[in-house]
Design a protein that fits this description.
Elements (H helix, E strand, L loop, with lengths): L26 E3 L9 E3 L5 E3 L7 H10 L2 H12 L10 E5 L6 H13 L5 E6 L3 H9 L2 H6 L3 E6 L14 H5 L2 E7 L4 H9 L2 H7 L2 E3 L6 E3 L3 E7 L20 E7 L8 H14 L1 E12 L4 H9 L10 H12 L6 E4 L3 H4 E5 L4 H5 L4 H14 L4 H10 L1 H13 L3 E11 L4
């Protein structure tokens, strides 16, 4: 799933019960290290382990390297580019959970194809240090091919990141704002300078865990701004300034921005609501979430009968966002799209021979991992399933029945009406 994603599904906000996000007494974790789960009380009052599904790097990395979801999401986002109406001085794009950067860099290539001469202002939110590193590794060629690019990486919360401005006075006073003006003209020169940022990232991309909810947040708010020195003059009105940055995005990408089982009100008011408010006139927010009703869910239900983590469809989510926005909802269009336009498919990489003959253990384990990753199954339940060994039989049967493994995602959108 795209957002890693990352090492956390809510990237500091969207994963716990619908309580406060900032911990009254946070526990510091080393940059890039995932804190241990903390016992919490869920929204319905049950005490349980606060498992952060996306914190498991091994599951995440296996999923993104064996499945095509990021490719499929990037292609779906690319279709949105024909519907945006950029205004000077730049095309403004916000990625609400950049993960390993695959989706964003693919989208930036598509942006260059469509708008080869327009300046880009791209902001990427990510709290995971490892994913920030993976994203930056993919960017040197973007600065070479499209030199009029301003790229911003931040670990701020959903309600803060589009504006690059922490809401609390304490956080704002400790904000680490760092600008990097790349010198040279080749991708190799840019790569070297971006690689040299690793110590800076390690020292400023730490996380804290909320003792009350188990959700991760930033230890210190950080903003990293990167652009080419030889285009500084041209980009002067695009480069963000600390304390005076506007949102007004032409496109906001929100791929898997919350836990599937998170409360509906939380998804609407704490994640998608703030992202909708960050849109400029004619701006578009594209949301992608897992849909289910696919071979992946068949694997889950073969092990846990009746399992359905896909609790809120796009219609329910959009209705909740409309209610969360209140009177301001009149300024937006809510686009659920018909089934044939909303749903798109991504698959696990397999060769025909792998499915037709005896399915190898590595293929079965990759398919099992993908199914439980998409379904966000907690470790405690996984341990019970692994102990029985039946999960391999279920996975094998599903792969043979369908000739492989694939999943449905659904895409829906919110657009801001033009001001007259």
């Amino acid at each position: 799933m795209q957002t890693s994603s990352a090492a956390l599904v809510e990237r500091g906000e969207a994963g716990g019960a619908a309580g406060t996000i900032e911990a009254p007494a946070p526990v510091a974790a080393r940059a890039g290290q995932v804190p241990e789960a903390v016992p919490v009380t869920s929204a319905d009052g049950d005490s349980r382990s606060s498992f952060r599904f996306y914190d498991n790097r091994q599951k995440y990395l296996m999923f993104v390297n064996t499945c095509t979801e990021k490719w499929a999401v990037a292609e779906r986002v690319e279709r949105e580019l024909q519907n945006i109406h950029p205004k000077p001085p730049a095309i403004r794009v916000f990625d609400a959970g950049v993960g390993d950067g695959t989706v964003l860099t693919r989208v930036m290539r598509s942006m260059h194809l469509r708008y080869p001469t327009l300046p880009f202002y791209v902001v990427a939110k990510e709290i995971s240090l490892e994913d920030v590193r993976l994203t930056l590794e993919k960017t040197p060629d973007r600065f070479f091919e499209h030199p009029s690019t301003v790229l911003v990486i931040t670990n701020l919360y959903y309600r803060e990141a589009p504006w690059l401005n922490p809401q609390s006075v304490t956080a704002a006073s400790t904000l680490n704002w760092h600008e990097v003006a790349l010198t040279g003209t080749t991708a190799r020169e840019f790569e070297k300078q971006i690689t040299d940022l690793q110590p800076l990232l390690a020292g400023n991309w730490g996380t804290v865990v909320n003792k009350a909810t188990g959700a991760l947040g930033y230890e210190r708010p950080a903003v990293l701004v990167i652009y080419r020195e030889d285009h500084r003059f041209l980009l002067n009105s695009v480069i963000p300034r600390r304390g005076s940055t506007r949102a007004d995005y032409d496109l906001v990408i929100a791929s898997q921005p919350y836990r599937l089982r998170a409360p509906l009100e939380f998804k609407a008011s704490r994640v998608l609501g703030p992202l909708a408010k960050a849109l400029g006139p004619d701006g578009r927010l594209l949301v992608v979430q897992s849909h289910g009703a696919d071979p992946g869910q068949e694997i889950l239900q073969g092990v846990w009968p009746g399992e359905n983590p896909f609790v809120h469809d796009r219609h329910q989510v959009l209705k909740a966002v409309r209610e969360a926005l209140g009177p301001a909802a009149r300024s937006y269009n809510f686009n659920a799209n018909p089934e044939e336009r909303a749903l798109f498919r991504h698959e696990m990489h397999t060769l025909p021979a792998e499915i037709e003959g005896s399915i190898g253990t590595s293929t079965l384990l990759a398919a099992w991992n993908a199914a439980v990753y998409v379904g966000q199954i907690e470790d405690a339940r996984l341990e019970q399933a692994l102990a029985s060994g039946r999960y391999l039989e279920v996975t094998r049967d599903v792969l043979r029945r369908h000739g492989g493994l694939w999943f449905w995602d659904e895409a829906f959108g919110i657009s801001r009406r033009r001001s007259f």
